[in-house]
Amino acid sequence: MIPAAFDYYRPKTMGDVIALLQEHGDDARVMAGGHSLIPMMKLRMADVPHLIDLQAIDGLDAITIDGGRITLGAMVTQHDLINNDGLSNAAPILSEAALQIADPQVRYMGTVGGNVANGDPGNDMPGLMQCLDAQIKVVGPDGERMIAARDYYESAYMTLRADDEVLVSIEFDAPAGGHAYEKQKRKIGDYATAAAAVQITSDAGKVGSASIAMTNLSDVPVWSEAAGAALVGTACDDTAIKAAVAAMLGDIDPSEDNRGPVAFKRHVAGITLSRAITRAWSRTTA
Ligand code: FAD
């Protein structure tokens, strides 16, 4: 398929991007890597008469690690996440997750900002950012504002970002303790049937804190506060992991689709989370 005709813009300043968004309203969309948007346009599932390319805006592709605070510019690619040594040391869950997205060709183009902004329940970065308790910075006609990743998603493809706002960066504290990003998919390069992002700290042999987020098991990513709480203070043994899985299953709401019926997805979600917790715990240092 080829997309419907559209006007293409490549502004050099964020002010020009926002002016175009205001001018064209619902008929305009920004494009980052284009690896979600262009396929949607080709399938005629997205109609974008005015396409605004962000590639010429300076300063959106920086990775900053400053005093334990990490900031990812919106145009940082999934490839960048995998190949930045400082980032791999400070937050190794990012590269572990990015390596499970699509294939190298997609990862050279696909951006963190596009993945987080998109609102597709199958995208891997939103759950990951909820696990990391990230803050999302958007800029619009009224200036900048921060939105917590855990509040950002309203329903599939609907987020708290207004149509005339652009996501410019995502920031979070470098996570402590052990991590794991576990993803079950039908084949290499596929979106998740279920995925779990887990960060755990240990305190004198017990779980000190745990953050757990699930992907593609509801119409939004699910940060399961109850699942994390079920682990805290335990030795992260089988009983505790089963309790965390039970709590997580109370928070997700999968739908039947070509990745399987609901019962199968819930089963896969449980196995995926168990594996992620076990691996994250094995990586903790007291
Ligand atoms: P684009 O496609 O350019 O944009 C996506 C949406 O976000 C659009 O609505 C756009 O308007 C909006 N947007 C983009 N940037 C901004 C911004 N800065 N501010 C506001 N709005 C913005 N993703 C996964 O997570 N997991 C997978 O397993 C996976 N598999 C894939 C397999 C294939 C074959 C392909 C083609 C893609 C796959 N993807 C997967 C999607 C890929 O990771 C996309 O690149 C990513 O989701 C979107 O990033 P992008 O930069 O390409 O965004």
Characterise this structure:
The protein is an alpha+beta fold. It folds into 3 domains: 7-53, Uridine Diphospho-n-acetylenolpyruvylglucosamine Reductase, domain 2; 63-173, Uridine Diphospho-n-acetylenolpyruvylglucosamine Reductase, domain 3 (2-Layer Sandwich), CATH 3.30.465.10; 178-282, CO dehydrogenase flavoprotein, C-terminal domain (Enolase-like, domain 1, 2-Layer Sandwich). 36% of the residues lie in helices and 27% in strands. The chain has 12 helices and 14 strands. It has helices at residues 14-24, 37-42, 78-82, 85-90, 92-98, 104-109, 112-118, 124-131, 149-152, 225-231, 238-251, 262-282; strands spanning 7-9, 28-31, 50-53, 63-66, 69-73, 135-140, 143-148, 153-155, 158-159, 166-173, 178-185, 192-203, 206-215, 222-223. The strands form 4 sheets. It has a 5-stranded antiparallel sheet with strand order 4-5-10-6-7. β6 (135-140) and β7 (143-148) form a beta hairpin. α7 packs across α8 (124-131). The longest helix has 21 residues, at 262-282. The mean pLDDT is 97. Flavin-adenine dinucleotide (FAD) binds at residues 29-37, 39, 54, 74, 101-102, 106, 109-111, 113-115, 117-118, 123-125, 166-167, 189, 191.
In short:
The chain is globular.
Comma- or semicolon-separated keywords:
alpha+beta, Uridine Diphospho-n-acetylenolpyruvylglucosamine Reductase, domain 2, Uridine Diphospho-n-acetylenolpyruvylglucosamine Reductase, domain 3, Enolase-like, domain 1, four-stranded antiparallel beta sheet, 12 helices, binds flavin-adenine dinucleotide
Poorly predicted ranges: none
Strand portion: 25-35%
Structural class: alpha+beta
In this entry the ligands are: flavin-adenine dinucleotide
- Please outline the major beta sheet: 5 strands, antiparallel
Q: In the CATH classification, which architecture of the largest domain applies?
A: 2-Layer Sandwich
Number of DSSP strand runs: 14
Q: Can you write the helix and strand succession as a string?
A: EHEHEEEHHHHHHEEHEEEEEEEHHH
Calculate the mean pLDDT score and round it: 97
Q: What do we call the CATH topology of the largest domain?
A: Uridine Diphospho-n-acetylenolpyruvylglucosamine Reductase, domain 3
What spatial form do the alpha-carbon principal axes imply?
Answer: globular
Number of domains: 3
Query: What is the CA-atom radius of gyration, in angstroms?
Result: 19 Å
Assign the CATH class of the largest domain. Alpha Beta
Count helical runs.
12
Which strands sit side by side, in order, in the main sheet? 4-5-10-6-7
Determine the fraction of residues in helical runs and give it as a percent range.
25-40%
C-alpha termini separation: 54 Å
